[in-house]
Design a protein that fits this description.
Layout: E1 5-10, E2 14-15, E3 22-26, E4 29-30, E5 41-45, E6 48-52, E7 76-81, E8 86-91, H1 97-103, E9 109-113, E10 116-120, E11 123-126, E12 131-134, E13 137-142, H2 143-151, E14 160-164, E15 174-178, E16 181-185, E17 188-192, E18 202-206, E19 209-218, E20 221-231, E21 242-248, E22 251-257, E23 272-275, E24 280-282, E25 296-302, E26 307-316, E27 319-322, E28 325-329, E29 334-344, E30 348-357, E31 361-364, E32 367-370, E33 382-383, E34 391-398, E35 401-403, E36 417-419, E37 422-430, E38 437-438, E39 449-453, E40 458-464, E41 469-477, E42 480-490, E43 494-500, E44 509-515, E45 520-527
Parallel strand pairs: 25-33
Antiparallel strand pairs: 1-28, 1-45, 2-38, 3-37, 4-37, 5-6, 6-7, 7-8, 9-10, 10-13, 11-12, 13-14, 15-16, 16-19, 17-18, 19-20, 21-22, 22-23, 23-24, 25-26, 26-29, 27-28, 29-30, 30-38, 31-35, 32-34, 34-37, 35-36, 39-40, 40-43, 41-42, 41-44, 44-45
Length: 528
């Protein structure tokens, strides 16, 4: 059974005046007849956007019969012109069955390369299986042809070519590029109907891999060739995360940020994972506390400093800031926060919060569509050195889940959330002094997370030690120590401990102190 706490991490914010010297502005734009959409795929061409798949409803419901139902799936291909504020739709009903079902699914991994959109996998309803499934297809879309046919009112199936391979049967991962190789990062194969109580209505297999393939046209025929996958059972056991392309010293790579779920605890990861041409490894001494699930995100590069700036907009997160305090909520709520992860040379990461927020609980399962007029590298990273104007349109946030409150997963009546129909133009403005505020917890290396279970009377801790040390953990109530535990000679590694503790109950407000040779951290736990 899952119990929640709210955890306050006490720390000091400090300003970084010399870092990210840009301000972010977020506007709103209404598109008539757009309708809400989330967990979709999108490509753009000549001012038009093609939207494929996704859901028309909000956060999936707890009840298996109501979750991922047929009424909420997107059965149309949608073309949107933000400049004209016009929408065109074309039904998938005339498409071949396999193509129709995949293109109507959600959480398809996708990427655009030049004028082609690539769509891998996705989770949806299979008429042939009479059940929900993860589709084993790669579909290649000719964007100019598809868009022009839909706008002209023609049936566009000739713009789509589908290829079957079980290695594409993933959902909730990310499809990316390093040089000419496609990288299908993480995700899982989910077969059957979702059930939050883990009753046997489904099977779930995490990929734990980066699956690499190349798509080539030889003599008029499309050929897909595979390279050996990079596998790590621990680092890549994640899904529903953000993976952003990077440039470091002219070399392309990827960074996978956060995601879910940890093997030991049913909460998001805090770490980040670097992926290069042939290896994956955890980036040491970094923890990401904001924007944990997939949300609108974009990567920027400053060639003068060789710094990467990764922007994240809203979504769902394990933590949020409140009056200068970092709050951990194990119900993992929606968040309007906008954050920045800066990557310096040698992959030194820092997390910052920006003073701007989305105007509500938006961003989860949304997409960022960059301004095509901005110069970018071949892997879609925006080149900051090419921006001459003081203020530019960076791009748009499209769709996603719009929640009425931070925590709505346990709401069983009414609509706690819907698919967003709001389009957010995002502007980048040069400033003389950075407005970004560093999260000091992000690079202290500890990565402390805590769970309480008032029924089982346990305290579960996850943390990272960089040196061999003893650790002293104490709980206090009303300024009196009620429990303490010393863990001796712990080796440097990621530590997971479940400790018996019969000293708390629901509603208690506790002070937790974590002390080691190089850490002294104080946290306030509100037991739920």
């Amino acid at each position: 059974m899952r119990f929640s706490i709210i955890l306050f991490l006490l720390f000091v914010f400090t300003l970084q005046g010399q870092e990210f010297k840009y301000a972010i502005e977020i506007d709103t734009l209404a598109i008539p007849q757009m309708g809400g959409i989330q967990s979709f795929s999108v490509g753009q061409w000549n001012g038009y956007w093609l939207i494929v798949g996704g859901r028309l409803d909000g956060l999936h419901r707890r009840q298996p019969w109501a979750s991922f139902d047929e009424d909420g799936h997107n059965g149309d291909l949608i073309v949107l012109s933000p400049e004209q504020r016009k929408v065109w739709k074309s039904s998938l009903s005339t498409f071949p069955q396999d193509l129709q079902e995949q293109l109507g699914s959600s959480n398809i991994q996708f990427i655009q390369k030049d004028s082609t959109l690539y769509l891998a996998g996705g989770y949806g309803i299979s008429k042939q299986k009479d059940d929900h499934t993860t589709f084993p297809f790669l579909t290649i879309v000719n964007l100019p042809k598809a868009i022009s046919m839909i706008v002209a009112g023609q049936e566009p199936s000739l713009a789509f070519k589908q290829y079957r391979d079980e290695r594409f049967a993933l959902t909730g991962g990310q499809l990316t590029l390093i040089d000419d190789w496609f990288n299908l990062v993480g995700g899982h194969n989910f077969e059957g109907r979702y059930n939050p109580m883990d009753n046997p209505t489904f099977t779930q297999t995490y990929s734990c891999e980066v699956r690499r393939f190349m798509v080539e046209n030889k003599s008029g025929e499309t050929q897909i060739s595979w390279k050996e996958a990079i596998r790590d059972e621990n680092l890549m056991h994640r899904r529903d995360f953000n993976v952003l392309p990077q440039i470091q010293d002219g070399t392309q790579s990827l960074v996978a940020f956060s995601g879910v779920f940890q093997r030991e605890m049913n909460i998001p990861y805090l770490d980040a994972v670097e992926i290069d041409r042939d290896h994956i490894h955890e980036i040491p001494a970094f923890a990401q506390y904001y924007n944990h699930y997939h949300c609108a995100a974009i990567a920027l590069h400053d060639p003068e400093s060789n710094n990467m700036y990764n922007l994240f907009f809203g979504g769902i997160a394990h933590y949020y800031d409140s009056l200068g305090m970092l709050v951990q909520d194990n119900d993992v709520p929606f968040t309007p926060a906008v954050s920045l992860v800066q990557i310096e040379g040698g992959y030194r990461l820092k997390e910052f919060q920006l003073p701007v927020k989305l105007p509500g609980y938006f961003g989860a399962a949304s997409e960022f569509i960059p301004n095509p007029k901005l110069r970018s590298y071949s892997n879609e990273v925006i080149d900051l050195s090419a921006i001459q104007d003081r203020r530019v349109l960076l791009g748009h946030i499209l769709g996603g889940i719009q929640s009425s409150a931070a925590n709505v997963f346990w709401v069983t009546e009414g609509e706690g959330s819907i698919a967003s129909s709001v389009l957010f133009p995002v502007y980048l403005t040069k400033v003389d002094k950075s407005v970004a505020v560093i999260n000091e917890q992000s690079n202290n290396g500890l990565q402390l997370q805590v769970m309480t279970d008032p029924v089982e009377q346990t305290l579960s801790l996850g943390f990272q030690l960089l040196v061999k040390t003893d650790v002293l953990i104490t709980l206090s109530k009303d300024n009196k120590v009620i429990w303490k535990k010393k863990l001796k000679k712990l080796e440097p590694s990621h530590i997971s401990k479940i400790l018996k503790c019969k000293k708390f109950k629901r509603g208690d407000v506790l002070e937790l102190n974590f002390t080691s040779i190089n850490y002294s951290v104080k946290q306030i736990l509100v037991v739920r």
